[in-house]
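not sure who needs this but someone in the group chat was asking about SURF1-like protein from Kangiella koreensis so here u go. i didnt clean anything up, its just raw.
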Amino acid sequence: MSKPLFQLPIGGRLFAPSLIPTIAFLLLLPVLLRLGVWQLDRAQEKRELIASLEAKSSQQSISLEQALQLEKPDQTKVMVAGQPVNDVHLVVDNQKHDGRLGYEVYGLWQTESGSQGNPEEYILVSRGWLPRQDFYQKVPNIPKFTDNKLSGQLYFSKGSNQVVAQNAQWQKFDDAWLIGQFDLETIAEKAGEIGYYTAPFVVRQQADSSSPFVRQWELVASPPEKHIAYAVQWFGMALVLIILFIVLNLKRERQDESANG
């Protein structure tokens, strides 16, 4: 048994930690505390981000050109001139809303700049969510994309997912392409494959009570409360580590006395 670094009497016992457990404790405890603090910082960042996005959602819509000149155009309300492509849809399966399975439906919008030879003349448009009618339904009944104006919020991808990109399996059903898992880059790549080269963002259409589509998107993927829960877990683990370190290094004083005798 290794020799203790020191001995400290605590209520009839001796706290006598040895070298290796003490080093492990001193290395691990700061890591757990730092992870907890980091999650608290992330929660505050999310609060600030949500406040910024909510402020944007209350502003008046501006033109796409004006929005793209902003330092942070993400989530800006825009109006886009042009016309819809009404015979192509990219459909994402297994999307939930209020606990119910359904689909997120993406359409394409041709901008006015397309007539000027702009290589990114199309925009991906999230038309919203449609419910799955039954287990056997492959794709939803998608209303034709015949809107005479496009208004909604810009959404920029938060990064690609290589696992999704490598395993993306598309199925063709009439004028709809169906995929079970996705990121926005995967959808944009598919649009390009079928001849529609899109801008590096999506327009999430404005909510419309007369539309069959549900248009309710989370402002952030992970709310502040989730980060707070993670912080509590890390701090809890730090507390358990402290308790274990103390308990496992407590020894009975009489054992030490008998050894001295």
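also Confidence is low (pLDDT under 50) at residues 255-261. if thats useful
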